[in-house]
Amino acid sequence: MGQKMEGRLAAAAAFVHERLGMTPQVGVVLGSGLGDFAALVEADCILPYADIPGFPTATVEGHAGRFVFGRLDGVPVAVMQGRVHYYEGYDMADVVMPIRLMRLLGVKSVVLTNASGGINPALKPGTFMLVTDHLSFLVPSPLRGANLDSLGLRFPDMSQVYDSGLLDLARKSAAAEGVELHEGVYIQTAGPNFETPAEIRMYGRLGADAVGMSTACEAMAARHCGLRVCALSCIANLAAGISPTPLSIEEVYEVSARQAPVFQRLLRRLIREIGV
Ligand code: HPA
Description:
The protein has 276 residues and is of the alpha/beta class. The chain has one domain: Nucleoside phosphorylase domain (Rossmann fold). It has helices spanning 2-19, 92-95, 97-104, 164-177, 197-206, 216-224, 249-275, and strands at residues 26-30, 42-48, 66-72, 75-81, 109-118, 128-135, 181-188, 210-212, 228-238. A five-stranded mixed β-barrel has the order 5-8-7-6-9, surrounded by four helices. α1 (2-19) crosses α3 and α4 packs across α7. The protein is globular, with a radius of gyration of 17 Å. The protein binds hypoxanthine (HPA). Hypoxanthine binds at residues 115-117, 189, 194-195, 211-213, 236-237, 239, 247, 252.
């Protein structure tokens, strides 16, 4: 995999480089319901994932599947409108290929966003959580297979995946915008099914505050290749068994879309803070 992925990444980076007149500093991955955020970018170049050679393409509804490169309040950004998920059938190496591409394009920090289910009773639908750490053992490591030595170490440290400086900027941004920002541990499942109540009880006992189907793998790949990482979660529903009603993707989209204006304000401020 290593050799092949190295070649695929180089080809994808060369393709994007040719079309890009800028060096993005901050990479942003927009989760469910947040896609409209890309409209705030003064776009320099928009590239559908399907146009990039060797690139995985998002198949799930609610994810546009394209890069928007440009400036946001003057900060050079690479915004991913939609991500690929493990549950779509891709290998983890494909799922994190966009993160590694952003690193090759010059990105220094990434902000990952998602919608998730609240396990901690304090996390009600519509609230936000700053991810301080994660549990990722339910999915294969994105670093499995031959190591990409040009990007990072074979055995990278993961004792601080989420950058303490970026965490502080996120707290500061939330305070400035008057947005209540909880903090907690995110657990990534393989999906695509939602969890059983017994699974959620177990995850809670293991230390998880919120559950979702993305993000941790991207954070690990980002950390591996030396990016600073920050992740924000919009709690879209109470997790299974805590919620009195069955879970549905419609509920996830509805709540995350309703909270999108607040999430966008928080994200915009954070990007501005990072760019300073
Ligand atoms: N479980 C897993 N993924 C999710 C959830 C959930 O409850 N809500 C949004 N994404």
